[in-house]
Structures are given as C-alpha cells and as structure tokens.
C-alpha cells in the first residue's frame, strides 16, 4: 500500500520556500550593507572603470593579488591623492574667504548694491514689482549673522577637511573591497551570471549594459566636471576673483547638472562685472563661459555618456538630476544606471514577447 505524498515535501513548496529565503536574506544583507553603501558602490564603480588597466597589469604581472594591489595603488595616485589636494586647497580658501567677510574686507552687500544701482530703470521696476528690491537688506542681515558666527563656521569648515573616524573607516573599506573586486572580478561576474535566473544571452546583455553605463557615466561626468571646474577656476584667477579654487570646485560639483550647472557660478559674476562697468571682464567671462565651458558640457557629455549608454540626452539629464536628489552625490552614477537598466529590461521583455508571438503564430499555422 502506497503512502500518500507528504504536502510539506512538495517540490513546488520547496522551490517557493527557497525563493523566499533568498529574497529575505538578500534584503537583510542589503540592510547590513546600507551604512557602507557609498564605500561599496564606489569600490564597484572604480573597479569597473579601471578594469581595462587591471587587465593590462595582469598581463605584466602573473600573480593576481600583486596585480590587484598595483592597480589599487595606481588608482590612489591618479584619483584619490589629487582629490585630497584639491579638497585641502578648497577648505583653505573657504576659511580665508570667511575670515575676509568677517573682517569686512569682502562685503557681499556692497557688491549687490553696486550691481542694483547700475541696473537700468526698467530693470529696477521689474525687481520692485517682483519684490526683489529688498535683496541688499536681506543680504546685509545675512552678512551680520555671518560675521557674528564666523568663528564657528570657520571651525566647521576646517573640520570638514580633517579625517573623521567614519570617513577613514569608509575609505579603507572602499580600498579593501576594491582590491578583492579587482582580484576576483572574473570569478564574481561568472558567479552572478550563473545565479541570475535568465537565459545566458539575456544575462550577458544585462551585465554588459550595466558595465557600459557605469564606465560611461563615471568617465563622462568626472571628465566634464574636472575640465569645467579647471576652466572656471582659471578664469576666476585671471579676473582676480577671491577663492578661485573654491569657485572652480563648486563649478565642478554643479557641472553634474548637465547644460546649466557651471553657469550658476560664473553667470552671476559675469553679470556683476557687466553692471558695475567692468565690460572687458564681464564680456570676457561670458564668452569664456558660453563658448569654452559650455562647449565642454555640450560636446563631451553626450559623447562620453549619451553615446555609450545609447540614451537620449534628455533622459541622461533627468536621470542624473533625479538620482542626485534621491541618492545624493552617488546619484550621478546610480540615476543613469537605473535609467539604462530600465530601458534594457523593457527591451528584453519586448524581444521575449515578440519571440513568443512568432512561436504561437507558427504553431497555429502548423
């Protein structure tokens, strides 16, 4: 006499249980990683961007660990050391600028009043109707608050440039993870490809697009930011604007917003010089900003980002802005990556549905 099947030993139930265990523990693992998400993400981004360099190093050095260590050291020298030097210069110039505002050497209120007095009467009337004619008084009050709290601000700015415990921990975790991603990258990618429940061709397409988007976005945005920040800082240095490294760094940061970012910094300075009678400086900075700094954004960004990811320029802009607003600075990579993977997933789904449609048509015809 045969025994009835045990419902708890059903293959369907076992499969569903395993699937829920995978989902649950994957979510728990992501929750554990969340406090160090930035360090892990940047380790992954750097590993993908510098993977071709690592492959060349592997051809010269046979031992994988030594090759990975040499690549990490190269990344530190190429990326991290210059970033620290620029950050130190920005913090130093920021503290000097704050002290000059406190001491009255730099008076933002006076600069704004000069600019508003130089405006034509029709422009002043427009500002009055918009309620913006009180800007100098508001700026004066803000300047007084700045002068009273200048010491605290200076101390805080200097603290930003110092190594905090959290930063040091995250930094070394990033390097540690980066080393193992470079050393074991091929094995890890094969493991992920085998684990993803998709057809091999679909998995290769998804992973390939992910790598392409990360490389294009990081290279494109970083290159554009560095070039625009350098060109803007150089223009401010020539025009003797206080803190050129600070404003150049701010332009580099804002250049993550395509098309309009750097202009938010050099535009007001150009307007101030034009309205206060410095026509050479104002016109020169405007021409430099539009034809040189703007050309870098309009030409290089689509080439380095949009073409490699095969995304329209407007989608790159929307994904970048949305990613930054949602994920912070890391969003300038995460946003375009999510947008590109969104397009790829829908394209794969469309291809599968078309294949199923063709198969059903052939079956019905047969």
Protein model, in words:
The protein contains 16 helices and no strands. Helix 2 packs parallel to helix 9, helix 11 packs antiparallel against helix 14 and helix 11 packs antiparallel against helix 16. About 5% of the residues have low confidence. It folds into two domains: 151 residues, no CATH class; 160 residues. With 366 residues, the chain is an all-alpha fold.
Short description:
The chain is mainly alpha-helical. Helices cover 84% and strands 0% of the residues. The chain has 16 helices and no strands.
Defining key terms:
mainly alpha; 366 residues; single chain; 16 helices
What coarse outline follows from CA principal-axis ratios? globular
> Approximately how much helix is present in the residues?
over 70%
Quantity of strands, as a count: 0
Mean pLDDT: 75
Report the C-alpha radius of gyration, rounded: 27 Å
Structural class, judged by helices and strands? mainly alpha
**Share of residues in strands:** under 5%
Question: DSSP helix count?
Answer: 16
**Low-pLDDT stretches:** 145-162
Main sheet makeup: none
Order of helices and strands: HHHHHHHHHHHHHHHH
Q: Please give the alpha-carbon distance between the first and last residues.
A: 45 Å
Give the domain tally: 2
